[in-house]
Every structure is written in C-alpha cells, then in structure tokens.
Write a sequence for this structure.
C-alpha cells in the first residue's frame, strides 16, 4: 500500500513541480500566476484592469484580422442562400411592402400625435444620439453571448448604452475600452432587460437562455401572454427608452420564449444609442 | 548552404505548428461554437495531446498566453482559461510519468477524466466567485463532443507526428 502511495506522490511531484525538458517556465509557477490573476481580477485590482484593457485593444484587432477568411466564407454562403431565396419570396414581399407603406404613414401620424399629447400631459419625451459601429468579433462561446465593436470611450460610449440592429434592440454595452467595447447580447444567460409585452401592456423581465432566443420571466400569469405578442423595452430603470422592439412571443408549453427580430449570428454593423429625457418647454 | 537554411526553416515551422494552431484556434471559431448545442473545445484536445506526446513542442508559456487570449476573446475573467489549460498540461504530464506503454484508448479515457475535473473546477469558480450563469446542457454537450473528437483529432495529430516529427527526433 505504502509504495503505491509514494509512487503517486512522486508522479504528481514530477508532473507539476519538475520543470519539463525544453520548458522555460515551471508549470506550478504559471498555475499559481493564473490563480493570482483570477483573484486580482475578482477584487478589481487596478493594474489588472489596465492590463486587460491593453490586451483587449491589441487582441480584438488581431482576432478581427485572423477571422476574416472564415467570415468571408460564411458571408458568401449566406449571400448565395439569400439569392436563391429572393426569387421565391418576391411576390409575397411585394404585397407586404404595400401593406407596410400604408402602416408607415399611419405610424408617422400616430407618432406625431403621441408627441403632441405627451407634451400636453407633461410626460417625458426622449432624444437619442446614435453611433454606428462595426462588429469586430462575434465569437460565441457556448456559455457567453457577446460581440466586440470598434467604438469605445474615444467615441463617448458608456456602459449600459443600448445596442440596436435595424432598429431592434440586440443588447447593451458591458465593457468599454478606448477604441473597442463589448456588447452583452440579449440571448446571454446573464442579460436581464425590463420589457413590456403588447397587447396587454404586461410588464416583465426578459432574460437570455444561452441560445438564440430569450425567456420571459417573473410574470404572475402566463395565460395573459398570447403567441405572437410583441416584446418592447419598458424603459423601467431609465437606461433604455421605452418602446424599442425586441422580438415576438413564442408560446412553448409553460414558458414564454422570445424569438428576437434580429439574427444575432449575422451582425456586421450595429447602432449604439444613448437616450436622454428632453426638457419640457 | 541555402538548402540547409531552407530545411532548417521548414523543420522549425513543423515544430511550431501545434503552437500556431493553438493561437489560431483561440482567436477563431475552430470549435464550431456558433452551432446549436454542438460545440467542442479544440484547445483542450490540442494541449492534452501535445503535452502528453511531445511536451517540448508546446511550451507552458505559450499555453498560458493562449489562455489569456481566449479569456479576452470570449469575455471570461482573465486567468481562467490559462488555469484550465495549464491544469490539462499537469494531468498530461502525470499520465506521461506513470505510463510505460502509451495507448491511444487509455489516453482517451484519461482525457475524459481530465476534462471533467477541469471543467467542474472552472465552472465552479465562474459560478461561485464571478456569479456567471451557465447553461449546463451546453456544458455537458461540450464535454461530450470534446471527448468524442479527441480520438479523431488525436489520430490526425499522431499521423502528423509520425510523418513530420519522427525525422527530427532521429
């Protein structure tokens, strides 16, 4: 019994403590250094944050360049697929376009009326500033859903700003570097956004499910939420403007999944917006 | 003279290939993570194989740096991936020390044990200390496919090793 235990200890010591042949660093030293980095990162040690920002700046650009060939193949395949689909969809789209055009005029009228009534009621109106940013990296870890964009504190971006694609909300800024930022997508498990579901004006929280859809949480009664209801931002908390469209409800047995209007796997350019309350005149 | 220099450069490139592939894999999507459910951890396979079979080709310093790069790209807290990768090196080094006759199948099952331990440790740290929610179904499939792909990629690496690295050993 005793010799086998000794063998085990000798093997462990040899594996972890002995510097391997042609190895410049000892394994145990690097392991300890990694643990140290994790701990310092956890306690928000300032030099570690600077180190992280520095590495981010260099690496995001490098990763963008190295992933270009792969991205090009992906986009080319997508383009071919879309070209084939265009012929099939043409007549349907034409009819839909007519309908949308008439709805657009109605919406413009309603928007103007809404603004006028809000002024009468002395309610809050919002003005927004937008910046267009290019997606540098969209590497999706199986556990985290985020993208990197090419605008940062240099362009006056701040944490918490809304990120949109084709006027649909896709996420918010969670990390700002000098020339780049990280956007946490709505589909991430850690994303939580206050939403309003129409019709019915049901207030709820939308969280990601780690895939390409969302999940409606904390509603008293799911029966009030109907399939195909539209999910908008509610504006609760003040970070986001109310009424930004997010997606549609897909009823799935006992839970309400949200099918996002934007395809998070095909993001190339996004719009970063900040909203401020307009002064009442 | 020029042929000698050319041969030397090619031999160096062949030896550097595992490290280069490791860096490309952490900066790219070789692991197919964008597909639903199906994903595997390519760096785990690469690091385990080369640390086990030819540790001198993949320096611990490179592995540590690749881990840092991976953390930055995927958005994990800095140091987590380096810790995982180096732990895999440790397990591979242990297996190398206790093995007299290497066998791919034995390595394969020890790899499963390694990734189970490493992933459990890493996700406990992420969940407990950094309050990062994780999808356990994705995690399970990631471990499963990483395990399955080891035998395929391991054999490809073995072919490469036998074809290009045998001569440099002699």
């Amino acid at each position: 019994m005793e010799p086998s235990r000794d063998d085990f200890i000798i093997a462990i010591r040899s594996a972890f403590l002995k510097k391997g042949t042609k190895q410049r660093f000892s394994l145990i030293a690097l392991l300890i250094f990694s643990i140290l980095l994790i701990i310092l990162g956890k306690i928000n040690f300032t030099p570690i944050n600077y180190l992280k920002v520095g590495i981010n700046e260099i690496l995001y650009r490098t990763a963008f360049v190295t992933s270009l060939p792969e991205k090009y193949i992906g986009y080319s395949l997508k383009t071919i697929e879309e070209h084939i689909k265009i012929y099939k969809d043409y007549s349907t789209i034409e009819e839909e376009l007519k309908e949308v055009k008439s709805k657009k005029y109605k919406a413009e009228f309603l928007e103007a009326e809404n603004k006028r009534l809000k002024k009468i009621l002395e309610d809050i109106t919002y003005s927004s500033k937008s910046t267009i940013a290019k997606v540098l990296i969209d590497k999706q870890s199986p556990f985290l859903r985020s993208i990197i964009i090419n605008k940062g504190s240099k362009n006056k971006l701040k944490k918490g700003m809304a990120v949109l694609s084709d006027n649909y909300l896709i996420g918010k800024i969670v990390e700002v570097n000098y020339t780049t930022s990280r956007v946490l997508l709505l589909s991430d498990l850690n994303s939580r956004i206050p939403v309003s579901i129409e019709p019915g004006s049901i207030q709820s929280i939308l969280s990601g499910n780690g895939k390409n859809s969302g999940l409606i949480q904390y509603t008293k009664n799911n029966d009030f939420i109907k399939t195909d209801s539209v999910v908008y931002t509610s504006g609760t908390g003040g970070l986001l403007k109310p009424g930004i469209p997010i997606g549609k409800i897909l009823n799935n047995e006992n839970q309400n999944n949200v099918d996002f209007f934007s395809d998070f796997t095909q993001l190339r350019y996004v719009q970063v917006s900040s909203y401020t309350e307009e002064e009442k005149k | 003279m020029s042929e000698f220099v050319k041969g030397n450069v090619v031999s160096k490139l062949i030896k550097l290939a595992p490290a280069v592939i490791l860096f490309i894999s952490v900066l790219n999507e070789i692991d197919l993570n964008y597909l639903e459910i199906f994903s595997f951890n390519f760096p785990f396979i690469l690091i385990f194989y080369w640390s086990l079979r030819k540790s001198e080709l993949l320096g611990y310093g490179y592995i540590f740096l690749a881990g840092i790069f991976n953390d930055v790209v995927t958005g994990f807290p800095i140091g987590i991936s380096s810790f995982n990768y180096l732990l895999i090196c440790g397990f591979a080094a242990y297996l190398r020390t206790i093995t007299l006759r290497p066998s791919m199948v034995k390595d394969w099952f020890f790899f499963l044990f390694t990734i189970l331990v490493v992933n459990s440790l890493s996700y406990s740290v992420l969940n407990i200390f950094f309050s990062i929610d994780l999808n356990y179904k994705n995690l399970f499939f990631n471990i499963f496919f990483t395990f399955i792909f080891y035998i395929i990629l391991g054999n490809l690496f073995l072919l490469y090793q036998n074809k290009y690295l045998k001569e440099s050993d002699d």
